[in-house]
Design a protein that fits this description.
The protein is of the alpha+beta class. It is 35% helix and 25% strand. The chain folds into 2 domains: 209 residues, Neurotransmitter-gated ion-channel ligand-binding domain (Acetylcholine Binding Protein, Chain: A, Distorted Sandwich), CATH 2.70.170.10; 127 residues, Up-down Bundle (Methane Monooxygenase Hydroxylase, Chain G, domain 1), CATH 1.20.58. The relative contact order is 0.10.
Length: 417
């Protein structure tokens, strides 16, 4: 029995033995030495130099570092992936049985491209000292080179709907060599489709609709990577918009303060200075370009309205002072009260004047022309400066509330459109 088991076991091992090819350190060192023999990194790795080399490129957004809307620059961290076939190294690799090796990118040919719309002097992705200098060389001659880099590109701001603003930015890569020698192709669909987002989100900006386009300009391959960024508005809404609305509402209530309190001027001027502060904040943050943001227009409108409020506050205090000094109401102010009080006929002021006499604007006493009475009415009530002040406060309060409501409705309609 044992005589048959031993030969059977040997036969089984011979039939099911898997060949394992182990490379020693000396063998791999010798392979690396011969790999770069007769290899010129300045030449395209094609046996037929009249053909263009095809390079597959894929750009993925790692994260948004910052966006400066005033300078119009976007700083983003980009994962750049390049792949191409090196026919020269493929022939040398065929004598080796390993699947892939790492080779320094500086010792082989690599596609040269630069950022066309850069906002700084560097026209390549800034990688610093941590740049991955090795690429992967596969047995079929395919080379894959991936690295992270910082791109600072131009991206003009569209702050019309600030702080609900959206900006469409792009990173344009331009091939150094013409299409007769180098052609860019898409590697695969960016981030799983046109609705991709960054690998890591920014605290202030959302990213969406990452798309890529290929074109040929001036006989060179061009690859454009588009990034749509939108601001996260909650912080600005809570710290800028809500206080601004509260100030504008409080601005109208100055006409409810009694003139005798002595706080009217200081109240209205304080709110006016607060609006000036808001204008400075917006001017320091947003670019000096068109279109002007709607919130900037809103603050300017409220600032202008606040100037009118200060003016009418001074006017009502002047009227109140006339009342304290028992000065008579002039004819224009009397007509103003009659018109705005519903057209009722009021008796004009006849302080220290004979019943058949009236006082004109200049304070001169004139004889009353009974045939030229306003609306030929029977005057029953005397008009005082207190009446003028009260009516002015009432009209200005309602007018400012109406103006603020209409202006806020228009602002919300335009910004949410």
């Amino acid at each position: 029995m044992d005589r048959f088991l031993i030969p059977a076991g040997v036969l089984f091992l011979l039939l099911y033995t898997v060949e394992i090819d182990c490379k020693t350190y000396d063998e791999m060192a010798e392979f690396y030495k011969t790999l770069y023999e007769n290899y010129e990194p300045k030449l395209r790795p094609l046996k037929n130099q009249s053909h263009p080399i095809e390079v597959y490129i894929d750009v993925r957004l790692h994260s948004i570092v910052s966006y400066d809307e005033r300078a119009g620059t976007l700083t983003s961290l980009i994962l750049n992936s390049l792949s191409w076939t090196d026919e020269v190294l493929r022939d040398k690799f065929s004598v080796n049985s390993v699947d892939y090796i790492e080779v320094p990118i500086s010792k082989i040919w690599s596609p040269k491209h630069y950022i066309f719309n850069t906002a700084i002097e560097d026209t390549v992705l800034k990688t610093g000292e941590v740049r991955h200098e090795d690429c992967y060389l596969h047995q079929d001659g395919k080379i894959i080179y991936e690295y992270l880099g910082l791109a600072v590109t131009k991206c003009p701001a569209n702050i019309l709907k600030y702080p609900l603003d959206n900006h469409l930015c792009n990173i344009t890569f331009f091939a150094v060599e013409p299409i007769e020698k180098l052609i860019f192709y898409p590697h695969y669909v960016v981030n799983g489709g046109n609705n991709g987002s960054a690998m890591f989100e920014n605290e202030e900006w959302n990213t969406s609709n990452l798309t890529s386009f290929f074109s040929v300009e001036h006989s060179h391959s061009v690859f454009q990577f588009y990034i749509n960024i939108s601001r996260k508005p909650m912080y600005i809404l809570l710290n800028l918009t809500v206080p601004l609305v509260c100030l504008c509402v409080l601005n109208s209530f100055v006409f409810l303060l009694p003139e005798s309190s002595g706080e009217r001027i200081s109240y209205s001027v304080t709110i006016l200075l607060a609006l000036v502060l808001y204008l400075n904040m917006i001017a320091d943050r947003l670019p000096n370009s068109t279109p002007i943001s709607l919130i900037n227009i809103n603050i300017i409108a409220q600032f202008t309205n606040s100037c009118f409020i200060v003016l009418f506050t001074i006017l009502t205090l002047w009227m109140y002072n006339n009342q304290q000094e028992n000065k008579p109401v002039s004819r224009p102010w009397g007509m103003f009260v009659q018109i705005l009080s519903g057209g009722m006929c009021k008796k004009p002021v006849r302080s220290k004047v004979e019943p058949n006499q009236l006082m004109d604007v200049n304070g001169k006493i004139e004889e009353e022309d009974k045939t030229d009475l306003h609306n030929e009415c029977e005057f029953e009530v005397s008009i005082t400066w207190a009446d003028v002040v009260h009516l002015t406060n009432c009209v200005m309060f309602r007018a400012n509330i109406l103006f603020f409501t209409a202006e806020l409705a228009i602002f919300l309609t335009l910004i949410l459109k």
